[in-house]
Amino acid sequence: MEPRLIKALKTQAEAEKQEALLTLETLLESPAGIGEHTSGHLLEEAKKYLRQYSYRDVAAWLSEQSDRYISHVGLMKRVKSEQKRKREAANQRHLAEKYKKAIELGATCDGEPGQRIPDVFYGAYVKDPDGNKLCFFDFS
Fold it and tell me: Span 64-72, mean pLDDT?
């Protein structure tokens, strides 16, 4: 297997790992078990409630269920942060797949997938057989 393909696969695996770590981190920061509720169960219920109720109402419900104070602002920041990181991981995985496909179709590597400007620009560069430079990128 070519080193470029190995690098692309590693990038994709890293994005999937980050997504899994985020989910694990969220669950570990919640209480381990509360009555009949497990932390994962509470988290899933809270996500469903957010579709119907305000952050303030869901935060009050979580505070009651977990015996810990959870502010609606903190809950909103946490949810938005989780959504952003999941979106970034999905985008990076998608870009790694495009890069891998281009290499398989005969393009040459001109910059492997990676962060170019921290927290702003993620990209990969290839040159097609005619010498045209292509960039797969995501501005976050």
Answer: 86
Asked whether the beta carbons of 135 and 116 are under 8 A apart, the reply is no
Distance of CA 119 to the CA centre of its chain: 13
**pLDDT tier, 118 (very low <50, low <70, confident <90, very high otherwise):** confident
State the alpha helices, DSSP H only, in the chain.
Answer: 3-29, 39-50, 55-66, 72-104
DSSP 140: -
DSSP code for 32: S
Residue labelled with tokens 């790992």: 17
Distance CA 48, CA 136 (A): 35
List C-alpha distances in Å: 70 to 6, 8, 36, 67.
43, 40, 20, 9
